[in-house]
């Protein structure tokens, strides 16, 4: 069989008194011990493979035009719109954003965004309907209700939507007025995501984000009154001053507001890449063992409250579409994280936006002036990209299944790609097997549920681009 692992020469570590053989279960190790072992490991988040640091400047607007023209009009696509503006800088933030309240600057951005939508649509053979739309940022609502409505009309005119399309927007709960809630409901938004991070006042002061439970509740009530019931919350662990008691208090407050989904992300401290993060002193951050303890406590509490654990860091109520997608084996992962979106094409518009196509990835200029200039000249504003090889697609499928399901059938995936099975990097994988974090049963790689926080380490065993000690990735824990 093309997918068989027989003869691949996986060089496992020689058995010792504590080692386990393929297929055997290793004893569970305490959180503190794992934290010490992996406290310095840095690996990608694997919202794509290969990951964005490997994009190249020689893949640009020519490739974008080619890939857009090749899109079949009978296959729905997805659209991501990036709005890089916020009113205030949160010191933990890793997004591409600019702090401004200048209405003229924001309106000019909205007008350029409309021109980019037209430019993209002009490159299509025929209009491609959208199955999923996601407004991200920054704070997309900083555009204001008039520009949001104008842009949504443009999207509807140039693309259209499938009957069951999800239209999502990220919101800052501190700035959700009744007018905004009514507007986004009127233009068809049917899912909203709130950044919560933490309700602990000490943590909020340390990250420069003051947001009370009452403020969040009021924003939520306004959305629900407008008819938007699909709500997602984001919370962070690993922030300054956080401990287990702090994160559990936040979880309990979040659960009382009853969102359908909760995403639980580990704070990525990369002050070398995001200079404002230097406002958070290193010595205030919990270590790897403490981070793992926080995540374990959050998981236990959310599951006790009836949420289903999904992939690396998501939780959803059993009747939520994401929980149903997991149960049916239809969960996916893309640049927005875990998703129910099954479209194979993601079109990114706006400065820094990333798109995903059958043949590869594309990223717009991050610099606002470069982005605007390209569009003014009638060029798709692509700064860099990556054309996928057959090996990239094969490894991407393995990593995607590991990240979504905690298991990957290497033989079945190899058969689907008409290739020989790809074995994990032997030294890295042997270490994880030795610790019980991963195991192999014939052609299947498995990650026990208790080690969900370590999925990225297992996925990294299939990443042929990953070099040791790369500082541009976040800590594995």
Short description:
The protein has 477 residues and is α/β, with parallel strands linked by helices. It is 34% helix and 19% strand.
Structural class determined from secondary elements: alpha/beta
Hey, roughly how much beta strand do the residues contain? Answer: 15-25%
Biggest β-sheet: strands ordered side by side in the sheet: 9-10-8-7-6-5-4-1-13
Count of individual helical segments: 15
How many DSSP E strands?
19
CATH top level assignment of the largest domain: Alpha Beta
Low-confidence parts:
1-25
Under CATH, the topology of the largest domain can be stated as: pyruvate-formate lyase- activating enzyme
* N- and C-termini, Cα separation: 37 Å
Q: Give the CATH superfamily of the largest domain.
A: tm_1862 like domain
SSE layout and pairing:
Elements: H1 31-38, H2 61-69, E1 77-83, E2 85-86, E3 98-99, H3 103-122, E4 130-137, H4 145-158, E5 161-171, H5 178-186, E6 191-197, H6 201-207, H7 213-225, E7 230-237, H8 244-256, E8 261-266, H9 288-304, E9 308-310, E10 314-316, H10 321-327, E11 332-334, E12 337-339, E13 346-349, E14 354-357, E15 360-364, H11 368-376, E16 382-387, H12 390-405, E17 407-409, H13 410-417, H14 426-434, E18 439-441, E19 444-446, H15 455-459
Parallel strand pairs: 1-4, 1-13, 2-3, 4-5, 5-6, 6-7, 7-8
Antiparallel strand pairs: 8-10, 9-10, 11-12, 14-15, 15-16, 17-19, 18-19
Helix pairs in contact: 1-9, 3-4, 5-7, 8-9, 12-13
């Amino acid at each position: 069989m093309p997918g068989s692992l027989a003869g691949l020469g996986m060089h496992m570590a020689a058995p010792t008194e504590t080692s386990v053989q393929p297929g055997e279960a290793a004893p569970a190790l305490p959180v503190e011990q794992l934290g010490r072992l992996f406290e310095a490991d840095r690996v990608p988040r694997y919202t794509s493979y290969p990951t964005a640091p490997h994009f190249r400047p020689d893949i640009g607007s020519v490739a974008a035009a080619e890939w857009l023209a090749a899109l079949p009009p009978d296959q729905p696509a997805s659209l991501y719109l990036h709005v890089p503006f916020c009113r205030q800088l949160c010191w933990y933030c890793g997004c591409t954003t600019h702090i401004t309240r200048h209405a003229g600057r924001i309106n000019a951005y909205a007008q350029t965004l409309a021109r980019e939508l037209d430019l993209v649509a002009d490159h299509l053979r025929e209009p491609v309907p959208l199955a999923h739309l996601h407004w991200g940022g920054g704070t997309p609502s900083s555009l204001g209700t008039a520009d949001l409505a104008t842009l949504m009309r443009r999207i509807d005119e140039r693309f259209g939507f499938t009957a069951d399309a999800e239209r999502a927007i990220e919101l800052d709960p501190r700035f959700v007025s009744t007018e905004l809630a009514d507007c986004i409901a009127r233009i068809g938004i049917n899912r909203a995501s709130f950044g919560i991070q933490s309700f602990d006042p000490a943590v909020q002061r340390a990250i420069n984000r003051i947001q009370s439970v009452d403020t969040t509740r009021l924003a939520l009530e306004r959305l629900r009154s407008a008819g938007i019931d699909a709500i997602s919350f984001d919370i962070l662990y690993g922030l300054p001053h956080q401990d287990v008691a702090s994160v559990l208090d936040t979880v309990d407050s979040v659960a009382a507001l009853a969102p359908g989904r909760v995403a639980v992300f580990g704070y990525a401290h990369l002050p070398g890449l995001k200079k404002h993060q230097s406002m958070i002193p290193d010595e205030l951050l919990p270590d790897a063992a403490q981070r793992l303890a926080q995540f374990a406590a959050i998981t236990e509490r959310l599951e006790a409250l009836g949420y289903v654990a999904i992939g690396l860091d998501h939780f959803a109520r059993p009747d939520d579409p994401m929980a149903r997608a997991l149960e049916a084996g239809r969960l996916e992962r893309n640049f927005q994280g875990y998703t129910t979106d099954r479209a194979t094409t993601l079109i990114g518009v706006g400065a820094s936006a990333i798109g995903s196509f059958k043949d590869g990835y594309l990223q717009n200029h991050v610099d606002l002036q470069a982005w605007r200039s390209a569009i003014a000249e009638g060029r798709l504003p692509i700064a860099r990209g990556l054309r996928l090889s057959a090996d990239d697609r094969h490894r991407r499928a393995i990593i995607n299944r590991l990240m979504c399901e905690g298991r990957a059938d290497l033989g079945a995936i190899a058969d689907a790609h008409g290739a020989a099975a790809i074995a994990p990097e032997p030294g890295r994988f042997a270490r994880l097997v030795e610790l019980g974090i991963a195991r192999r049963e014939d052609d299947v790689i498995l990650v026990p549920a208790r080690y969900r926080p370590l999925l990225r380490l297992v996925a990294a065993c299939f990443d042929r681009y990953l070099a040791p000690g790369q500082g541009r990735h976040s800590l594995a824990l």
